[in-house]
Design goal:
Beta-Lactamase; Helix Hairpins; 5-stranded antiparallel β-sheet; 7 helices
């Protein structure tokens, strides 16, 4: 069965509506049939009464019916409506013209005077006839004669009327079914609208435009909304505590690391160069770890937790304005060719961190200029950062994306910048490609998901 609530509801609605209307149709047809049969029964009784009132015996004792029923079907051969009179005493018979040469095979059962018996008998041309029979006493010249009066109708008339009624009823039942299903769909849409508001609220939380579910919700959803808000509050509390502890740990380590670096410098001045270099290296490694973990604590756990989509043009403009203020950045030519309307599915803070590390790394090695350009020809936008520095030996390109790897120990840095770029790329599905330019320098291409 479909896992969609709408799909399940519509399936159940469709089955129940079709089943209910089918049963209703059967009931209507059966009710019509019974009503029609009752009307036929009354009609046959009326014909029998009229015939009984018109029976006469002539002076010679023969049976006569001067006033015959006027219904045209009695006069049409095999017309479907028949009457037959039998004198029990003489076995003399009178029949309607509609019987033609056929005689109804009336049962030889006993009758009380005036009692009505009903049968289904074989009729003309192998038809089935519904027959009402009654016994009356009629005065004759030679005394009282018991006379049996039978009036019958072909049951095909009932079947035809039943079929015609069912055929006429079908379009109305189909129209009613369509209306009921449409009404169920409208009811479903209105009934599930509060769930859509919950979904919209969760999207706002996911996009960091809200911290909790707010607004008016039906009583049936209040318990769910309360549970979600409690979960969000607990999650936010855990995240805040973790970040606070990471920050406290980082600040607690930075002072000892600074002291350690100063002690290393003091030892170096005293001529203890070997131990000084080891202490300075350990301090740098520990500082790189601290900076790396602090940076990771600020990155979204997954792409779905981003606050909103980001504008690369805005991020690049902010980063370039900051780097231009540095001694090395102010000597470079910065060229940015990124459309203002381009957006990528990355949290703005994370994109700022990613591009900041790539551009800062390019600034360290560039001689004259840094170029940032965008490609938006296909569905997957690309950003390419180009510098005119010395480039990287081909066999070491993969290594520079790992944490703590520095190809030149003389250039300041922690060796975590490009590893942060790699980690952010893994979170958001961003492809990171590094290659040497043919004209010299390095090219870093970021391919964002569509």
């Amino acid at each position: 069965m479909s896992r969609s609530i709408r799909g399940r509801f519509l399936l159940v609605s469709l089955v129940t509506v079709v089943l209910a209307l089918s049963l209703a149709g059967i009931a209507f047809v059966e009710l019509f049939t019974r009503t029609f049969e009752k009307r036929i029964d009354e009609e046959l009784a009326d014909h029998g009464t009229n015939i009984a009132g018109g029976i006469r015996f002539s002076a010679d004792g023969s049976l006569t019916l001067p006033n015959r029923p006027v219904d045209a079907r009695f006069n049409e051969p095999y017309g479907g409506l028949y009457w037959q009179i039998v004198d029990d005493q003489t076995s003399e018979q009178l029949r309607s013209p509609s019987l033609w040469d056929y005689t109804l095979p009336l049962p030889a059962d006993g009758h009380e005077t005036g009692e009505v018996h009903r049968y289904h008998l074989e009729g003309p041309e192998q038809s089935t006839v519904l027959v009402q029979e009654r016994k009356v006493i009629v005065a004759a010249p030679d005394g009282q004669h018991p006379v049996r009066i039978a009036v019958g109708i072909d049951v095909a008339a009932v079947a035809k009327a039943r079929s015609s009624f069912a055929t006429d009823l079908f379009p109305y039942m189909v129209a009613l079914a369509a209306f009921l299903i449409a009404a169920s769909l409208v009811q479903l849409i209105i009934g599930l609208r509060p769930l859509s508001s919950v979904s919209e609220g969760l999207n706002r939380v996911r996009e960091r435009r809200a911290e909790r579910l707010t607004g008016q919700y039906p009583a049936e959803l209040q318990e769910v909304v309360g549970a979600v808000n409690s979960l969000l509050d607990a999650q936010q509390l855990i995240i805040d505590k973790a970040r606070s502890r990471a920050a406290d740990l980082a600040h607690g380590l930075k002072t000892p690391l600074t002291i350690l670096s100063n002690d290393a410098a003091t030892l170096h001045d005293k001529g203890e160069t070997q131990i000084a270099d080891e202490l300075a290296h350990l301090a740098d490694v520990m500082r790189a770890h601290v900076d790396h973990e602090l940076t990771r604590s600020r990155i979204a756990a997954n792409a779905g937790l981003r606050r909103s989509d980001a504008s690369p043009a805005r991020c690049i403009d902010n980063i370039i304005r900051t780097l231009k203020r540095s001694p090395q950045g102010e000597t470079l030519s910065w060229i940015a060719r990124v459309p203002d309307d381009l957006t990528v599915p990355v949290d703005p803070n994370d994109l700022q961190e990613m591009l900041g590390n790539v551009l800062e790394n390019a600034m360290k090695w560039a001689r004259y200029e840094i170029i940032v350009e965008a490609e938006t020809d296909d569905r997957a936008p690309r950003l390419r950062i180009l510098d005119d520095g010395p480039g990287v030996p081909p066999e070491q390109i993969d290594a520079i994306m790992h944490r703590g790897v520095r190809l030149d120990m003389q250039t300041p840095g922690s060796g975590i910048g490009l590893s942060i770029v790699r980690e952010i790329g893994e979170i958001y599905g961003i492809g990171v490609a590094i290659e040497n330019r043919k004209t010299g320098g390095l090219s870093v291409t970021l391919t964002f998901p569509a």
